[in-house]
Amino acid sequence: MLYLFSTSPLFGWDQVYVFGDSLSDGGNNGRYTWDSSRHPLYDEILAAKINQSLQPSSTGGTNYAAGDAVASASLNAENNTASQVAAYLAANGGAADSDGLYIHWVGGNDLAAAALNPVQAQSIISGSASAAASQVQTLLAAGADTVIVPTVPNIGAAPVLLETLIQATLAPVASAALTAAFASLNSQPTLTSDSRNQAIQQALYAAAGQVSSVAAVRQTIANQLYAAWQSLSEQASALTDSYNQQEESQLAQLKGNIVRVDINDLFKEILSDPASYGLTNTVGMACPPGVSAAVCGTSTPGFSSEQAFLFADHLHPGPGTHQLIADYIQSILDGPAQVVALNQATLAMSRDARSTLDSRLQQQRHGDNPQGSLTLFGGYAGQHYDYAANQAAGDGNATSHNLTLGLDYKLTDNLLVGALVSGSDDTQHPSSRYDYKMRGWLLSAYSELAFFDHGWINADAHYAFASYDDINRSMTIGPASRTEKGDTDGKQLGARVTTGWDFPLANWLTTGPVAQYALDYSSVDGYSERGASSTAMRFADQNYHSQTGALGWRVDSELGWINPWAEVSYNHQFGDNVWRAGGGLKSTQTSFVRDSAQQDTNWVDVTVGAHLPLGDSVAAFASVSQTGGLSSGEQFMYNLGVSARF
User: Fold this and answer.
1) Is 401 exposed, middle or buried (0-12, 13-18, 19+ CB in 10 A)?
2) Which residues are bridge partners to 100 per DSSP?
3) Active-site annotation holder among 104, 316, 429, 462
4) Catalytic residue chosen out of the listed positions 110, 313, 426, 605
5) 313 in active site
6) Is-catalytic flag, 572?
7) pLDDT one-digit tens code per residue, 119-147
8) Per residue in 197-233, pLDDT tens?
9) Which DSSP symbol is given to 309?
10) How far is CA 464 from the centre of its chain?
11) CB 448, CB 359: distance < 8 Å
């Protein structure tokens, strides 16, 4: 039986809780993107995935983020994320919702404070990084299950750096210089790093024109401004990296599900190829200089619609960028939920081999197999199953292919012993966003004992090993598509006992009960995806334990030229009822675990088959099986084979 799991994109969480600054603020101090009443922020997009409407805490909601907030209370005693976390816990009796998904994203304003105080910069950064990590620890200790902690994007890449530089160095003409600079920046696309730097040089030349109309003087001022911008940009980048690295180091020491998402690395990728993400300008801004995105809209005088901007104002993302951030975070959250599908392949291989073996044992129970006879058999088995409810990965299906070769010996009139080898070569498509190839071998030993004329008992045990090749995990980030690739290995140990009793109804017809108990332990080795992008992940080992009991009823016939049979069985899963996998970004040290929804624990199998004599010592066999009663998909199995007695 295929144990399907039902996983919505953010299955397992009933609410989103947010702590942070203006990047996440849904209305406590403002909504910081243009036309914000019409455009959702990244956290609101994620909340919508679990059918939740994320509202600011000031109106009774669960978004505590506030514009201008810092991580360290020493920088702003009135507006900081420590107070936000404390307010949330105080309102909930000190306990965090264990079924909630948490976002803690802060640091941009701390970096700005550090940049304005070079002497104290490193101590500010260290204090803020420590404070942020401590707040995540507080949430985990209070019972939070999963906390998303994004890195802070490089403030040196935001328009605020150019704006600050022009205001500080061209103070007497700052307003006109800013207007000229951003008119220049907004007038052209910046689709490459070179074009971006060239646009900045041209903008600074336009700003310098407000000081002097003499070309040589103007160029000298522009060159000095550009050199200063380069220096400030490098310093800002270094401060950003220091903050992110220090927070990362402290987060790695915590226990709990920490989803570290590298927004800083994502922004680097966007800056190098904005067109792939639906953007044309990464250095200008849609809102006019001096106007906050919280109050800016397309009807604001000076609003620029010339480009598809990365930034809404000097520091905040535009609506399209919020969608990119949400898609990116979603792709990381979904990773482990997609990877759990790997265990399906080894389980499918054992089901196929057992299907062929069951048909062979059914054949020999009702055939002429005297003591000392040796029988060689071979068969093909396959199955088709749907991942219809696996919404974390999307709808998908798989069709398996298995060849088995076996040999058994009739040791006594009542005892048969044998062994088989089985090979599978499958391409699995759990979803349109996740697929892989599995090649594996299974070795099994088995026996069948007849007793009291009408009773029988089978036992089999197997070991299987598999190679997973060409694992493809695909995602979309806005209009951009990318695929991360990997490979790994897996194995499975299993054993099964089946017994039955045949009541004769006629000399050609018997019927009776059957019972079965099967144990399977499946594991897949952890692996790292081969890429080095912001979405490349590493995954931990995953294990699955199945204990399945079944009770059923059979009808067997011996018509001579063909011998059909049928069985209906009720099955119950006593083992693990969830699939679980853990992972994290390759660029980070933290990790998190995703659980699937609870699987079906009860189902019904209906099987019909037949064995057909082809001569005195050669016979064929076949069967088909349909699984019913599943809430999350379909499964259809089939096998056919031939045996020859010597």
Assistant:
1) middle
2) 15
3) 316
4) 313
5) yes
6) no
7) 999 999 999 999 999 999 999 999 999 99
8) 999 999 999 999 999 999 999 999 999 999 999 999 9
9) B
10) 27
11) no
